[in-house]
Amino acid sequence: MMSEFSTTFSELARKRQMSVEYLSEFTRLDAAFIRRLMTGDKKPSHATTIKLAMALVSDKELYRREKAGMPNTLAALIESLLADAAVTSTTRGSRQSF
After folding, report:
1. Where are the chain's structural domains?
2. To bridge 36 with a disulfide, which of 32, 42, 93, 96 should be the other Cys (CB 3.0-4.6 Å)?
């Protein structure tokens, strides 16, 4: 069953003429996973939603010319920030008393 997210995501990708392959390459997510997001078979994490949003607003031609540029840099920074946040929330929950 298609969720609100999957309907919106599919529609935005179609309107922006962005293929699953392009979205997969830009986000570094598996194409099959992106297809499952579009059909509602999977739900995205917050990090995945951020990556997909970045891809949907990206300039395809600029990305194709400068693949090693901004999109990968921004994705790497966001991934590292989210990883730090996960570690911080895990360590807060495991405080020990002496």
Report:
1. 4-90
2. 42
* Structure-block tokens of residue 18: 């962005």
The pTM of the full predicted model, rounded to 2 decimals, is: 0.71
pLDDT in tens, the chain (98 residues): 789 999 999 999 999 999 999 999 988 899 999 999 999 999 999 889 988 998 999 888 888 877 765 556 777 777 788 888 877 666 665 555 44
Assigned architecture for domain 4-90: Orthogonal Bundle (1.10)
Tell me how far apart the alpha carbons of residues 11 and 94 are, in angstroms, rounded to a whole number.
42
Which H helix or E strand runs over 94? none
DSSP state of 19: -
